[in-house]
Design goal:
With 232 residues, the chain is mainly alpha-helical. The protein is 49% helix and 9% strand.
Length: 232
């Protein structure tokens, strides 16, 4: 992190510093924010030297800001990572950059304590919820993330007991049963008698349910060859 209006001296100093870092430890992770000035200079020199680099963004992953750094962002994604705590659709608003600074400080590859692990899990969870929520906007049947995750648990074609589905999704029986009722109402799942225990009923995804998932995520490939799966 540093000035956006980098001078020639600042650029030389940044590049010299990264060369010295490479000499001391070629595995050092360079973390910055893809912004103008020192940020992008550090990223580009890290790429040039073969150092791993991560760009922490102040917006969703569906865009690159500033747009003039798109080529560098693509290179960073291949050699390191682009990360953000913001879901797709989030614009690079001014107040997001304050939060990004805190996030950059949290990305410590040498940390092993519970706080760091919890922070990373929180970022993944927030991004996943935001991405899924946006994707579900195109579905006339799936109205909640819970309905989506219940259906996704069945995508490999294996029938599953209701109790196991509730357990995997972390929902109590009453709430989970309501999720299954909605999915069955839309024809996305079906029930069948358990061949081992005739008293128990199993749940299986229907071709319509599989097509619904494929319409939300066209590149979803978690389907076995003996089942129908639409991909684009």
């Amino acid at each position: 992190m540093g000035t956006r209006n980098i001078t020639s001296y600042g650029l030389q100093t940044t590049e010299r510093l990264l060369k010295e870092i490479k000499t001391l430890d070629a595995e050092t992770l360079i973390i910055s924010g893809l912004a103008y000035g020192v940020d992008i200079a550090a990223h580009r020199k890290a790429l040039d030297l073969g150092l791993p680099t991560v760009a922490v963004l102040a917006h969703g992953l569906d865009r690159v800001y500033p747009a003039t750094h798109r080529a560098s962002a693509e290179s960073i994604a291949r050699a390191g990572a682009l990360i953000t705590e913001y879901p797709p659709g989030t614009k690079p608003e001014r107040y997001n950059f304050v939060g990004r600074k805190s996030e950059q400080e949290d990305v410590n590859p040498n940390a092993t304590d519970e706080a760091y692990i919890a922070r990373m899990l929180s970022l993944i969870y927030r991004y996943d919820r935001g991405y899924t929520k946006k994707a579900l906007q195109v579905s006339p049947c799936l109205q909640s993330e819970e309905e989506y995750t219940y259906l996704l648990c069945l995508v490999d074609g294996e029938a599953m007991s209701k109790g196991e589905l509730h357990l995997r999704n972390g929902l109590e029986r009453t709430t989970g049963s309501e999720m299954l009722r909605r999915l069955q109402k839309h024809g996305l799942i079906e029930e069948e008698i358990d061949p081992v225990d005739k008293r128990q009923r199993l749940v299986r995804i229907t071709p319509r349910g599989r097509a619904e998932l494929a319409s939300i995520f066209p590149n979803l490939k978690a389907c076995r060859s003996n089942h129908i799966c639409t991909t684009r």
